[in-house]
């Protein structure tokens, strides 16, 4: 039975791309929408997003941010105001020319991101130092028309949050940019059980219109990197383009300093590819839609169904997202299905278990089968979920640490990348080195790390200079 | 001071439309977006929406619904499949012709509602009776290009939820349609403190593509009606157009029976116009972003600031959404601002209060000023918020009941409407009567009530026949 299920999922080691597609479709996380590149997020996938949203939103609010909602349609002229920004996004926007049966006087675009419309409002709302800092976030859909798409990773429409803040000083804006980067890193670690590298992006990889971009990169099981979140320091580029000025305490008009930051439904793709295995999903307990599934075994025997219901009710009452599976299918079929769906804890209730006052359980991260007393199972399950989170994180961290190697020169860099690892390089920040790495290895500088260089010449060009350590990897 | 604030808001009795606009803009619920007919929902307005969302979502989930997310862009051809539906919505859609720098082979529209795309997926997902019922909801933005727009009431883009369900039998689908209507009515009463009339809509007023539409209508302070939510029974109209069939237990292929239902950010407009007064907003406690504001009076005096902070912390700890206002403004200025913003409970902490171990408080619904002991203030405040909810509901209900009159004939109907009341009419369901009422009085049949007719002839045409009682009103 297990084999039959597994047969449906392509081999994770040799066909990782197909494995991913099989998993997201067969576990009913998503389906393809009628327009190429769009996805339908099905209830099981959307419940993960809701859990991410809820826990991120709490962190945003606890750090003084408020939510708001800005219109999705942006006049073309507004998009055009910041030169680099429009150059970066114009090629992928969707344009509305006709609405309400009439040709629009000015076409508008569906937001690919909301800097432009938010800045136009900030220009109206911000007048005095008393109006600062202004720290807003919005949960929204955005559209970026992409050539190559894959569910969660790159879709024409996706869901995300975008924070946009305005500050009186450069230092404050920069601090916000870093604080949110750290918030994302902590969230990935504490909620998604996912270790990440954080650091500044290269000039080439930075956001269109930003002064500096910082990224959070996670290692997927195929050794490729996934950009899981970014924060941007805008300096005064947008405030000058959109005229956002405030009268400071010293009675002088000044332009505000800004940041923006975002994560998206892409995080779901990251979870799948950081934790999955041949059987399917392995979901971190804190975002799993179902944390524990209770399956009656030999449910026709006296007392089994009742006991299973009782146990499920006790787990629910303890705040565990529990599903009781009483469907008319064999236990084996159910075991495999819930394994594929990545439920952290599976609890089997059979007549012999009940006689012994026990249940048999299986944790999804290790697939080991153990037993536990029914008495106090709620507390034990809570502790188990915590332990599953911890051990998933440790496993991910160990995997990552064993897949990061120092590249002292270009030959080593090529070997490391071909061995499906991240390379740590020393880089003199010359864009020519970055271009060469891309050309030779189809790899990119992911983030620069705040670490002392491990040699005194650039891994790529061998020159001395203003050296930094950086992560180079192939990426999604 | 009070006068100065009030001066900024147009007179509620004689200039209700301007009063509404003044209130939504000055309390910073919304601002106008750059494209005509769009609104920016500012943090204070969005927090109300979040409170509505959270409490509705809990009710949806408790009744077996799951959330999902469907693409916003719908191929034109998909919209065209159900004839009445496309006829109803085509005139107001926004059309995307160009995306990613290229002319699209087939134009797509931004969803005005999602029946079409959801039905196309249901056709794929539903195969067996085991797949039923399917009860999904989505929280999303929609675009309907309207000629005349007003914040919250009618905007080109708005936020809403739309439930879409599929069932094996007509009875089940009809039960769902009614259950959700009752859920909306209970929510309006228990959370928004707003009495409503519920009932079936006339043929003319029903949703494009529905077999029957049911509505929830609330009376605004100007005697006009606002449609605050609708539920639709589709029968098999959509399942036949989109080919949604299932193999039933009897091994026969059958079309599913469907419902849909929705409420939107319009509810915020309803709250404003059902509860507001000359001083501004009066927010029902259960959705108020700030339920209690604590204002230190003579804050420079020893111990005042500390005591105010202590009280605010105690209220927050009791689960009350509390704001401590320590801004550098006079207490009078603050009182007026928070009154305008509709905060249910205002607590003043001054040196004399502290001496007496008391605070002075004011409830927004009555504006009476009272005092309460500091000891146990958290419990007292919780009880007060509950009482404010109850008395707001009672006040609304009394207002409504005193503004509904029986219209025995057309002359009475005209007089009732001109007196800014709802009319209860007896109607023989002849569309000609409905058209005449519209023509003569610019009023419409809002809902048909499940009540015995109070006379045996139609209020409009005087004929006997298949008579029903209905609410006739001018409407938003």
Q: Biggest sheet of chain A, strands in spatial order? A: 3-7-8-14-11-10-9
Total beta-strand segments of chain A:
23
What is the multimeric organization of the chains shown?
A: homodimer
Distance between the termini of chain A: 34 Å
Report on this model:
- With 476 residues, chain A is an alpha+beta fold.
- Chain A has helices spanning 2-7, 16-26, 43-62, 76-79, 83-89, 115-125, 170-190, 237-241, 266-275, 304-317, 331-340, 351-356, 377-401, 410-418, 431-441, and strands at 30-32, 39-41, 66-67, 73-75, 94-99, 102-110, 134-143, 157-167, 197-200, 212-219, 225-235, 245-247, 253-255, 257-264, 292-296, 322-324, 345-349, 358-363, 369-373, 404-406, 422-427, 444-449, 468-473.
- The first copy, chain A, has a seven-stranded mixed sheet with strand order 3-7-8-14-11-10-9, sandwiched between helices. A five-stranded mixed sheet of chain A has the order 16-15-17-18-19, sandwiched between helices.
- In chain A, a hairpin with a 5-residue loop joins β12 (245-247) and β13.
- In chain A, 51% of the residues are buried.
- Chains A and B meet through β2, α3, β3, β4 and β5 of A and β2, α3, β3, β4 and β5 of B.
- β5 (94-99) of chain A pairs antiparallel with β5 (94-99) of chain B, so a sheet runs across the interface.
- Chains A, B: It comes from Candidatus Fimimonas merdipullorum.
- Chains A, B: One of its GO terms (molecular function) is ATP binding.
- Chains A, B: Its EC number is 6.1.1.15.
- Chains A, B: It catalyses: tRNA(Pro) + L-proline + ATP = L-prolyl-tRNA(Pro) + AMP + diphosphate.
